[in-house]
Structure formats: C-alpha cells, structure tokens
Amino acid sequence: MIQALAFYLFASITVIAGMMVISAKNPVHSVLWLILAFFNAAGLFVLLGAEFLAMILVIVYVGAVAVLFLFVVMMLDINFEELRKGFYTYLPFGLLVGAVLLGELAIVGLGWVTSDHAASLSRMPAPANVTNTQALGQILYTKYVYVFQASGLILLTAMIGAIVLTHRTRGGVRKQNIGEQNMRQPSDATALVHVQSGEGL
C-alpha cells in the first residue's frame, strides 16, 4: 500500500512538473520544474528496484545537465517579449503536431501486445549474487558495446557541431594569443634608451 501511494505521488508530480516545463513563461522556471521532474523520476526508478539508474539520473541530469541549463539560461540576455510575439502564430501547427503524437501514443498503447518471448523472459529467475549495477554493466559492455560506443560518437559529433555553430568571430574584441606570448623576446617588449643629462622629460 505504501509503495502504491509513493508511486502515484511520484508519478503525479512528474507529470505536473513535465507540463510546467513546457508551459512556464520564464525559462529559468522551466529548468527548475525540469529538476523537480528528474528527482521524482529518480524516485520511480527506486520503486522499480533500479537504484543505479536513479543515482545516475540525479547525479548526471540534475547535478550537471539541468544545473548547466539553469546557469546558461540565467546568463543569456534573452528578450522574452520578443520571443513571445510569434507564439500565437505557431500555436495551430504546434497543436497539430501534439495531436498527431498523442494519437500515435494512443495507438501504441491500445495495440500493445506482449510477446510470448517477453513473457518467458519475465518469468526467468534473476541470477544469484548479481546486483542491478553488475547486470547492467555486463549487458551494456558485452552485448550492446557497439551501440554504446556509437551513442558516444553521436554525442561527440553533436557537441562539436554546437561549438562550431555558436563560435563566431567578433570584431573589436581583444584576445590572448598564447603562441605569440610564448615566442616573445625581451627585445620585443623593452627598449633601452640613452638619455643625455638635461634632456629628459
């Protein structure tokens, strides 16, 4: 009974927080709602017995990604009034896309049929003396090692693309040139001037 109440509590807060992420007008508030959704999703993972996934969700997504989003949004000088001007223009298209996605999810949910193979796997006894973390590592680094490495390459490509797209040269900005500073000679920075007596400033 306590587990059922905890599940409905975590699930309801996760759904509400997810809706507030996309409906909040302030991006900072959206990130804060996203952090709340991550925490409650971690609680759902704990109820499922996947404590490793819950820990990773809190450490990686809440501790790194969501906080990074929060600082980036707070540091950016965004004109929110300018962004909201085109909201009603794209609202019909957004509602259409949302309706299509909702229909697809409904079709998948209503047509879901568990295969016999999946049912037989669910009845298999769990290996003795193997934790969730060990079982996940054995599967991830043996059977799905190529998929795991491919996902890392995709993320690396996305990171490089984001850096290339956002890095632009601006005029009038003074920057350090480490190579020139290291190759600089004393004669380039100093000059010895012989001043006669009485001719100084």
Q: If you had to describe this structure to a student in words, what would you say it looks like?
A:
The chain is mostly helical and 201 residues long. Among the domains are: 1-78, Four Helix Bundle (Hemerythrin (Met), subunit A), CATH 1.20.120; 130-164. 73% of the residues lie in helices and 0% in strands. The protein has 10 helices and no strands. The chain starts with a helix and ends in a 12-residue tail after the last helix. The mean pLDDT is 80.
Low-confidence stretches: none
Sketch the major β-sheet.
none
Shape: elongated
Structural class by SSE content: mainly alpha
Q: How much β-strand is present in the residues?
A: under 5%
Give keywords:
201 residues; mainly alpha; Four Helix Bundle (Hemerythrin (Met), subunit A); 10 helices; 73% helix
Write the layout of secondary structure elements.
Layout: H1 2-23, H2 27-47, H3 51-75, H4 80-83, H5 87-110, H6 116-122, H7 132-143, H8 145-166, H9 178-182, H10 186-189
